[in-house]
Design goal:
The protein is of the alpha+beta class. Helix content is 16%, strand content 44%. The protein has one helix and nine strands, in the order E-E-E-E-E-E-E-E-H-E. The longest helix has 19 residues, at 93-111. It is globular. The protein starts with a strand and ends with a strand.
Length: 116
């Protein structure tokens, strides 16, 4: 693979964040990102629980088009469909870890252009 270079942002993005914890220990982070479009993201998680999905650990990610966000989703190979809200849940400790690493890979891919 070639060397990468940083890709500049096209537009400024204003971010507003909120944090809360429910009485049963679920951490909720909400962010609204405002640019030419407005996209909200909500993450709910309850930490490491010591095992697989049966131990109760989860991470839920919810993306919401608040205004002018062109967003489509495909599930299980079905056709792409226009979406206003996309929600995905991962259950289990290793799923939490692999999700975290996958999201870091996404950020890296979006921030780096491979030199031709």
């Amino acid at each position: 693979m070639g060397k990468g270079e940083r890709i500049p942002k096209m537009n400024d993005v204003s971010i507003t964040k909120q944090y809360e914890q429910t009485p049963d220990g679920v951490n909720i982070t909400k962010a609204q990102l405002v640019s030419a479009n407005i996209l909200s993201v909500e993450v709910q998680e309850n930490g490491i629980k010591g095992g697989d999905a049966g131990h109760g650990g989860f991470v839920k990610i919810k993306l919401t088009d608040d205004a002018c966000t062109s967003m489509e989703a495909r599930v299980n190979g079905d056709a792409l469909r226009e979406a206003e809200v996309v929600e995905i849940v991962f259950r289990g400790d290793t799923e939490r870890d692999t999700l975290r690493e996958a999201l870091k890979s996404v950020v890296d891919a979006l921030d780096t252009r491979v030199a031709q």
